[in-house]
Specification:
By secondary structure, the chain is an alpha+beta fold. It has two helices and three strands. It has a three-stranded antiparallel sheet with strand order 1-2-3, with helices on one face.
Amino acid sequence: MHKHTKGEWFAKRDGWSTVYIECRIGGGMLQEVAACGPTFNGSEEQEANARLLAAAPDLLEALEDLKREIILSDVDIAYIDSHFKPWIDKARKAIDKALASNS
């Protein structure tokens, strides 16, 4: 079970300095899940950082779906490992990193 805030995450600029990543939770309330401050490379980089963070739950879900489909498919696992192992390992590490508990 995922412990991150459920719901669609989105980026929203508030004023000139901060882009917040928010999620609509129960009753239509908003919860801030992250904030991206100004960068030395300007607002384009700041906005890109915020979009990446806002996409994180969708990216995690997509990787988990792909992992599950590969495991449940009729595709020869030896073929998958021999042709796609570096990318599968990278996806597994990303999933593990997203779900790791630091407590």
